[in-house]
Amino acid sequence: MKRRDFLTKTSLASSLMLVPNFMKAFEGLDPAMLGYKKLVLIQLSGGNDGLNTIVPYRNDLYYKYRPGISISKYKVLDLNGELGMNENLAPLKSLFDKGYLSIINNVGYPNPNRSHFRSTDIWHTASSSSEYLDSGWMGRYIDQYGKKPHSGIEVDDSLSLIMKGQTMNGIATKDAKKMFNNAKTPFFNKVLENQTAAHLSEHNLGYLYKTMVSAQSSAKYIYETSKTSKSTKSYPKNPFAKQLKTTAEFINSGLETKVYYVSMGGFDTHASQSNRQSRLLKTYAEAIDVFVNDLEASNSFKDTLIVTFSEFGRRVQQNAAAGTDHGAASNLFIIGKQLKKPGFYNASPDLSNLDSNGDLKYSIDFRSVYATLLEHWLDANHSNILGQSFKTLNFI
Amino acid sequence: MKQRHLIHLHWRSGFGIKPSSLQSAKALNKKKNVNSIFESSKKIEPILIDLSEFDDFLKTPYQKYKKIHGADAATKLRQKSQKKVRELNFVWLKKISSSQCVLREKMTLFWANVFVCRDNHIFHMVQFNNCLRTHALGNFGNFVKAIARTPSMLKYLNNNRNIKSKPNENFARELLELFTLGLGNYSEQDVKEAARAFTGWSFKANGDFIIRTNKHDENLKTFLGVSGNLDGDDVIDILLKQRECAEFICKKIYTYFVNPVIDPSHLKELTALFYKDYNIEKLMRHVFSSDWFYDEKNIGVKIKSPVELMVGINKTVPSVFKKQSQVTYLQKMMGQILLYPVNVSGWKGDRYWIDSNSLMFRLKLPSVLLNNAKISLKPKGEFEDDFGNFYNQKNQNFTVSDKARAYFETHYSKTPFKRLKAILVLPKLDEDTKEMLKIYQNQNAFQYCIQLMSIPEYQLC
């Protein structure tokens, strides 16, 4: 048989009709059993400068440390008489005013690492700065609670550590149709159609077959569930907004996915920071704005929590290139309708008490934030997932 | 020697075997085949790469260079060096795929994931990589001492900043935890004492190792129960005296070369042998000569690393290493970029290579490389990228060349399908997959080969 013949012969043969029994186990679970709550985690990748995002505009030290790149008190959007928002975050200001935004200051961890790779690793795995874990915290949540690849979706083409569990991984896709097509190349399909459960108990080979079956099953589920859900909101034309649009379509279609991870790049502002960061924050805020409206219009905003973090903040003192170098603790945004403490969750950063590198010290461990999300939003036991027990906070 | 055992031997000591070499090798016994593998790797052929444009790097330390030529020039030089390291990645992969010293290259790859290191200084990185290659089959003790002296490692784990007045424990800790003993075999105090022994270790602009005696701590230290004015080499010698050190390395060797599931009696056997003199070549000869190495339970059970997968396909049909950007793309999509390990503990390997996305990609790889199938997936952007570049990563088009087809025709067209299957696929075929493969019996050998490479069994070696 020629390849082309084979293509035409198999592309119509629906795998639906030939689903082996062991594959059906992956489908048809009652979503109510898992709860409706969704968590969307957004990473501002590269290290966002928290101090020029939420500006301590009454603090002389801030202006002293940043003679060239500070933001004038006349330009900030005042939040509490002490801290103000970067004007490019205007859409976020209205969320703040509505009580849909909580800002947690000084989030970090002991002995902060200033490498993008390592610090991202730490945030993804929820490890301390001296341990190396092979699995991500969302991955471990999927291990224990979701049990299917599509329980966690990374809106990208390849999977990050955060979504890799110990026995189960999430799945990455920014285009459900594309993934579905990739997963059903004629040969791939054929292997699955012919496959019975005979192999599944075997060691590594069984693991490969199982992963292949669950990948295809999830690809099909995501595509078929979400294909009719097309967003009617008009998102800005940029790739980050596109990622959020896809996320909204997934959520609004009723996918039983619990956790989403989106990474937005470009925040490594070592030089000429002001213009670059302004554009980035604007892009971020405008996309978030439409995203929230989109969820709101489908009545799913109340069940969705959007958390934005960065692998580190930046040095308080600006550098010689009108930029900032890698820092440590920074602020974190929680957006949602069911916030217990909208506005500022805790005290402003203390610019008079920096660490030996001249970076902000942390006062809230990021794992306490995770613990809270797990316990109070996802109804999960946090110490099982984080490996130890952390103090939970009361922002939700 | 049995064909199946021969293929197994070549997959574990290298990246598979060509049918043409198989015929002659079958006539020889196990001992002769093992000998010939070691014979081919006797030579040490370092990576050679033209670095004349980086001469300044050797003469002047970076900070001094910055003072003389200004920050912009220094940044440019640094970026040029970063780019060259990406080229080194390509050069290294091509070497892995084409070198006659197959075992030495496989061992180099193995050690690069034990002595994990990352550096954007091209001179130092080439030096580091060649250090792995030089000692790959040598004496483990000398190996550790040589690695500890490389500028890349001195920088990566901050040992060059480890001075008497302010000891830095980073290198000492990883030396104990990841390079020699493993967690649980030493105390926090041992880490502190070891760090003091390494104080003052550094390097000159040309890459030569020096001990800055005025920064070295000459006082009494007690490390793992041994007291004295210990220096770094003393610490390494004490480490080698611990049986746990031999066992720790043998565990890594066993899971990488034999089976991800360790058989305690075989591990004990290897540890006893290695502990005697830490001779890596002897250890590897023992592994490949043991009867148990050829037990069915050890054949076709290891999940290929992305590099093993690519190099293996390339061995059968040369198609992979045409363009640097393509090879970078493949490594990114499958999660193993040489010279860019995830963190100091390295890649976990085996099942950790596999998730839904990487597996779909790996299963599609043969049709992408050999059958002009399109793949539209993009790799992730870098942390340092600006917004535009972060999202503007390119997917790659691959087209199979006539040369690759011709190569296949010359080497395989007369190979019966049954043999082709035996050569390419080591695990026992799944019954259903076997049935399904029958559909392709009437195709040409090239198509059949692509189909074989697309089944999950091909992911194993």
Notes on the structure:
The complex is a heterodimer of chains A (396) and B (461). Chain A has 14 helices and 12 strands. Chain A is of the alpha/beta class and 396 residues long. Chain A has one domain: Alkaline Phosphatase, subunit A, CATH 3.40.720. In chain A, strands 1, 5, 6, 7, 8, 9, 10, 11 and 12 form a 9-stranded mixed beta sheet that branches. In chain A, strand 3 and strand 4 form a beta hairpin. Chain B is mostly helical. Chain B has a two-stranded antiparallel ribbon. The two termini of chain B are 19 Å apart. Chains A and B meet through helix 6, strand 7, helix 8, helix 9 and helix 10 of A and helix 19, helix 20 and helix 23 of B.
Which CATH architecture of chain A? 3-Layer(aba) Sandwich
Q: What fold name goes in the CATH topology slot of chain A?
A: Alkaline Phosphatase, subunit A
Morphology of chain A? globular
Q: Order of strands across the widest beta sheet of chain B? A: 1-2
The low-pLDDT segments of chain B are none
Helical content of chain A stands at: 25-40%
* SS-based class of chain A: alpha/beta
Shape of chain B: globular
Average pLDDT level of chain B: 94
By secondary-structure content and strand pairing, the structural class of chain B works out as mainly alpha
How far is the first residue's CA from the last residue's CA of chain B?
19 Å
Q: Can you tell me the residue ranges of chain A where pLDDT is under 50 for at least 5 consecutive residues?
A: 1-34
**Helix count, DSSP H or I runs of 4 or more residues of chain A:** 14
The amount of beta strand of chain B, in percent, is: under 5%
